[in-house]
Design brief:
single chain, 489 residues, 4-stranded parallel beta sheet, globular
């Protein structure tokens, strides 16, 4: 029964981590994993127990890295070999179980703030970038030297953006360089004015400028993901970027560029379809996809209030990493909403493998909040914290007596008129009289009861006293291709 709804305990010991990848030569460990910076981080804090979090493809280097850090710092290092949800999030739960005073996160990261105040150092690793080829590709795609453009990159190529900007700035006048939104060191003061933080990056905008004015040039491509549409970092940028601005991607090794406009339109069309599915849904499954990111409890309560205001039933499910086999155990649920970090919520798995669609919190907000701006005017928010009070993008629910709840709505999928989300009493006094019924009927059926009544098999009927008692007999034995009583053929 345990394996039906969650992963059994033995699976964690028997599961293979997959291809560990090529091990880094010992002479390159200091450069690839920035061990000098990590040693300074541990010494400045004076930590005696430090947790090291590696993604699966870098676990082969975990032993040598931990040994060098222990030798240089004298502190005890704990290797976190498994995470409850995704390797891009800081595993604060695993660090707490090890009694660690700090954590060092290696590899790609979503840079989401952890739920507990644990000192964290991020090592994004460094991938080689052909600067000359990327500069020529930038010039080919941006012939206008006065056009505003932002330099973006995958986390492993962020170290080369300033060098690339140095080659381009003599010709391009309005060039903006983004940087990863790494946490500031303890005791440091934030710059004034504070740069804009979006998509896990910082943008040093000039006063009076906004990010929607800029085009984008993205350096990087995912080596681990065969389908670019499933790259969560690039999907987050394409969905949230201004639709009318150009967006190009560039391979850091070859300088080959690609216009990402068609892919962005395909992703937006998919998200609009998911919004329509959410509006048609009556039962919503809220998947708790993270426990280590800040404000996840507040976000879960917000989504439950949102579905209740829209007249939908919601159920909270804590299943660990969502898989098609786990979610298929809840056929009465119309849609699932994954409450996770921005990278985990956008691409849990290929969408075709799930029995029901898996949405991000932003799609549920657009479907259930009638005050949410229409498509094209509302930004696609990739982090659930942007939906909560205190965020500049937060849109409160209208009051119950607002006319927005009574606006006629037609489903673009079924073509049917959607009923109002909440029942309101009528002013007609005649409606208070009860009409006689020949038999008892349900005044209001729940979505679960409606689903059960529509099924062809609803379970065994007791039929007490109506079934004759018979003795048990032996059934067939063997396999389906050759039962014992069938003989040889």
């Amino acid at each position: 029964m345990e394996s039906t709804f969650s992963s059994p305990a033995e699976a964690a010991l028997q599961r293979e981590a997959g291809a560990a990848g090529l091990r880094t030569p010992l002479g390159d460990l200091d450069r690839v994993y920035e061990l000098e910076r990590v040693v300074g981080f541990v010494r400045d804090l004076g930590c005696q127990r430090v947790a090291l979090q590696f993604p699966d493809q870098q676990l082969g280097d975990a032993g040598p890295v931990a040994a060098r850090l222990e030798e240089a710092t004298g502190s005890k290092m704990f290797i976190l070999g498994d995470t409850a949800y995704g390797s891009c999030c800081v595993d604060v739960l695993g660090a707490e179980q090890a009694g660690a005073q700090a954590l060092v996160h290696f590899g790609p990261a979503c840079l989401s703030p952890p739920a507990c105040p644990l000192p964290v150092a991020f090592v994004l690793s460094q991938r080689s970038v052909a600067l000359e080829l990327c500069a020529k590709a930038f010039e080919a795609q941006n012939p206008d030297p006065t056009a505003p453009v932002v330099l973006l990159s995958e986390p492993a190529c962020a170290h080369a953006l300033e060098a690339l900007a140095t080659l381009l700035r003599p010709q391009y006048l309005d060039l903006l360089v983004s940087s990863p939104a790494l946490p500031l060191p303890v005791g440091s003061h934030s710059p004034d004015p504070e740069p804009l933080e979006r998509f896990g990056r910082r943008f040093p905008l000039a006063p009076g400028r906004c990010l929607e004015e800029y085009g984008a040039f993205y350096v990087g491509d995912s080596e681990a993901i065969s389908d670019p549409d499933l790259d969560p970092d690039l999907s987050r940028l394409l969905l949230g970027w201004a639709p009318g601005r150009p967006f190009f991607s560039c391979c850091p090794d070859t300088g080959q560029t690609q216009d990402e406009g068609a892919r962005a339109r395909r992703l937006r069309a998919r998200r609009r379809y998911l919004v329509e599915r959410a509006r048609d849904a009556r039962v919503v499954g809220l998947l708790a996809g993270t426990l280590g990111v800040a404000r996840h409890r507040e976000a879960l309560a917000h989504l439950r209030n949102l579905t209740e205001a829209a007249g939908k039933r919601s159920y909270v499910l804590a299943l660990g990493r969502p898989t098609p086999a786990k979610l298929a155990n809840f056929p009465e649920v119309d849609i699932f909403v994954l409450l996770a970090c921005p990278l985990g919520a956008l691409a849990p798995q290929p969408s075709g493998s799930f029995f029901r669609p898996v949405l991000a919190p932003c799609e549920l907000e657009a479907a259930c909040n009638p005050a949410w701006p229409p498509p094209g005017l509302a930004p696609h928010l990739t982090h659930y914290a942007d939906l909560l009070p205190g965020s500049p993008f937060h849109v409160p629910l209208p009051p119950p007596d607002s006319e927005l709840w009574d606006t006629p709505d037609v489903s673009l999928i079924t073509g049917d008129l959607r009923p109002p989300p909440a029942w309101k009493p009528s002013n007609d006094p005649g409606c208070s009289a009860l009409a006689p019924r020949p038999q008892l009927e349900l005044a209001e059926s729940s979505p679960a009861a409606s689903f059960l009544s529509s099924r062809s098999w609803q379970g065994l009927q007791p039929r007490l006293g109506q079934t004759p008692v018979t003795g048990a007999v032996s059934g067939r034995r063997g396999i389906a291709i050759a039962y014992e009583d069938e003989g040889s053929s």
